[in-house]
Amino acid sequence: MASRDLTTATLAGRVGVDPKSVERWITQDRVPRAGTRMRVANMLGYDETYFWPSLLGTKSVVGTTSSEVVQIWASRASVPGDVWQALIAKTGQRLEILVYAAMFLIDSHRLGDVLADLSARGGEARVLLGDSSSPMLVQRGIDENLPHVPARAASALEYLHVANDLPGVEIRLHDTPLYVSLYRFGDTMMANPHTHGVPAKDSPVLQLAKVPGGHLFDYYTRAFDRVWDAGRPVA
């Protein structure tokens, strides 16, 4: 509330409750009704479980979270190429990618052309690639017995660099210790969690759908935004 310059009374008025109710949420950890929780979450920009973590164990939240998970694959390599192609084809106006290199999208699914088509349709794309000069990528390559990780990141940037000049497309470099690769196609997301010493292609993939009141989709969206904010724009 403070970060958005909202008083107790202002928030209460905007979500349609008495100011004393907001005070009880804060001081007594009271949990409001579902509709009110959703209005608060939308206004303040966090999932409702951020404010009321006791909801994480309730049947309604568990059910909503389960509905977000469309499918799980044991590894990224086991995701059929047709699935990636279908997601690309159904992308609306928003594409977001957080990876070190993801050369499979460039080689097999013509990511450069995808970005150009999205730009021509007035869409927006944010792409985060690993900074090939970062010691973090060198260490990741050592840990996974893939010493070419920095070189693959450099190749990805070389292929996609021209797309950075397209309207609505921006590429940034990051040097974070990547815990998950993310691929967002509109309201569908592929989350590829990383495990120490295991390449991303051999790690599981969750296909997530954005649903009202969901937790996982927004959780990973916020993770993307944190890396994006710390990323370095490509010149």
Structural notes for this entry:
There is one protein chain. This protein is an alpha+beta fold and 235 residues long. The protein is elongated, with a radius of gyration of 20 Å. It has helices at residues 8-15, 19-28, 34-44, 48-51, 59-68, 81-89, 103-109, 111-120, 135-143, 149-160, 216-230; strands spanning 69-73, 94-98, 124-130, 169-174, 180-185, 188-193, 205-209, 232-233. The chain has two domains: 8-57, no CATH class; 67-233, Endonuclease Chain A (Endonuclease, Chain A). It is 45% helix and 18% strand. Strands 1-7-6-5-2-3-4-8 form an eight-stranded mixed sheet, sandwiched between helices.
Keywords:
235 residues, alpha+beta, Endonuclease, Chain A, 2 domains, eight-stranded mixed beta sheet, 11 helices, elongated
What structural class should be given to the helix and strand makeup?
A: alpha+beta
Uncertain regions: pLDDT < 50 for 5+ in a row? none
State the distance separating the first and last CA atoms: 36 Å
Order of helices and strands: HHHHHEHEHHEHHEEEEHE
Relative helix content: 40-55%
Give the CATH class of the largest domain. Alpha Beta
From the 3D structure, determine the CATH topology of the largest domain. Answer: Endonuclease, Chain A
Count of DSSP strands: 8
The total domain count is 2
Please state the CA-atom Rg, rounded to the nearest Å: 20 Å
Q: Biggest β-sheet: count, sense, barrel?
A: 8 strands, mixed
What is the global morphology? elongated
Number of helices: 11
Q: Enumerate the strands of the largest sheet in spatial order, edge to edge or round the barrel.
A: 1-7-6-5-2-3-4-8
CATH architecture tag of the largest domain: 2-Layer Sandwich
